[in-house]
Write a structure and sequence with these properties.
Structural class: alpha/beta
Distance between the termini: 39 Å
Largest sheet: 8 strands, parallel, barrel
Number of helices: 14
InterPro entries: Aldolase_TIM (IPR013785), Chorismate_II_sf (IPR036263), Class-I_DAHP_synthase (IPR052899), CM_dom_sf (IPR036979), CM_II_prokaryot (IPR002701), DAHP1/KDSA (IPR006218)
EC number: 5.4.99.5
CATH superfamily of the largest domain: Aldolase class I
Number of strands: 8
Radius of gyration: 25 Å
GO molecular function: chorismate mutase activity; transferase activity
Bound molecules: prephenic acid
CATH topology of the largest domain: TIM Barrel
Mean pLDDT: 96
Keywords: Coiled coil, Transferase
Shape: elongated
Number of domains: 2
Strand order of the largest sheet: 1-2-3-4-5-6-7-8
Protein name: chorismate mutase
């Protein structure tokens, strides 16, 4: 996939240099007093770059608090005026965008449930055509479809928006997981690889769903070179009208931010780089051996395929496959490797064996 979006670096609009961008504030603006009180505490920390608050809340089921609506924009504008801190909110349609722009909201974000709809994203991009002085952040779609996420950036980019960033908030799952939305870190890792210009902000509140997970998710994001964090913060989290379990107090946010380690993405130290090069050479050699072994394995799989074809035997052998899974997981454990990791690799190996043998079966079918 080719992506060429010359979006502005974060420093251009967020005024952060050499440190991760921090967006914090309540999940929802509930009352003008709650918003202002939270914002004041956050401003006093001196560590928060943008004050966030949801005013239109897309809820899973009706009858939950769906946000203060347009009235909340005035509260956000008051916070911006009184405290001089940039403010941001979620938008989901053209009307939201137009109203937010009227109130001078600095940062808009498109939520995960909206990013899934190219129609909605395009309508908002049209409403943003030619607009200056607004940054637009795009949360990942609820399911892990990277091209859909990228498509949203392309639509906004074509509308002339250059102050763009991604928000990784995890992916919906029905599996039992300690996360509310499973992170699937490989998706933002791949986004960074194919579109390195797009800054990525992590939303540990939505990934974790529980305040106790916020620190570890944030640290992991920083170690993956993310550019910022969006952390839901409320004066009295346990009394919050939405997402009470995943919000922290401004005091706790301050602790989290001071405990997080911000590491550099490379080093200029010669000894470090020389040693790293030596170790990487070892990895290069081992990877070559690994691929040679896979090629040798595949040659035998092909032989078995031909043998099965001559004897009219199915490609998939349940019993043998089940034995391999168990045995390789045991071997992994004995070698101090995570058996789940090895099983995932074997699933890919087996899928390719079946694909190859299916090709071998077909080749004869078409000859016959
Ligand atoms: O053992 C076989 O029958 C094979 O074809 C090899 C192999 C494998 O990749 O290990 C491939 C397909 C079968 O389902 C089981 C195992």
């Amino acid at each position: 996939m080719e992506v060429n979006l010359q979006v502005n670096p974060l420093e251009k609009w967020a005024k952060v240099k050499g440190k991760p961008l921090v967006i914090a504030g309540p999940c929802s603006a509930e009352t003008p007093e709650q918003l202002m009180a939270t914002a004041k505490l956050l401003k006093d920390l001196g560590k928060v770059d943008v004050l966030r608050a949801g005013i239109w809340k897309p809820r899973t089921r009706p009858n939950s608090f769906e946000g203060a609506g347009a009235e909340g924009l005035k509260w956000l504008a008051d916070v911006k005026k009184e405290l001089g801190i940039p403010v941001g909110t979620e938008v989901a349609n053209t009307q939201h965008v137009e109203e937010a722009l009227k109130y001078g909201i600095d940062v808009l974000w498109i939520g995960a449930r909206t990013t899934v709809s190219p129609f909605s994203v395009q309508e908002m991009a049209d409403a943003l055509q030619g607009v200056k002085n607004v940054a637009v952040l795009v949360k990942n779609p609820t399911h892990p479809e990277l091209p859909l996420w990228i498509g949203a950036f392309e639509r906004l980019y074509r509308a002339g928006i250059r102050d763009l960033a991604a928000i990784h908030r995890g992916f919906a799952t029905s599996d039992k997981s300690k996360f509310r939305n499973i992170p699937m870190w490989q998706i933002p890792i791949e986004l960074r690889r194919i579109a390195p210009q797009i800054p990525i902000i992590c939303d540990p509140s939505h990934i974790g769903g529980k305040r106790d997970l916020i620190f570890e998710i944030s640290q992991k994001a920083l170690d993956l070179n993310f550019d910022g964090l969006m952390i839901e913060t409320h004066i009295t989290p346990e009394k919050a009208w939405s997402d009470a379990d995943q919000q922290v107090t401004p005091a706790r946010l301050s602790e989290i931010l001071s405990e997080l380690k911000v590491r550099k993405d490379s080093s200029t130290d010669k000894d470090f780089n020389d040693h790293l090069d030596d170790l990487r050479k070892k990895i290069d050699n081992l990877d070559r051996e690994l691929i040679e072994v896979l090629a040798a394995r595949m040659a035998i799989v092909e032989k078995i395929g031909e043998y099965k074809r001559e004897n009219n035997v199915t490609t998939y052998q349940v019993k043998r496959w089940d034995d391999i899974m168990k045995n390789r997981a045991d071997l992994a454990t004995k070698m101090s490797l995570n058996p789940e990791y090895i099983i995932e690799i074997y699933k890919i190996i087996h899928e390719e064996s079946i694909r190859k043998q299916t090709e071998i079966m077909k080749a004869v079918a078409s000859k016959a």
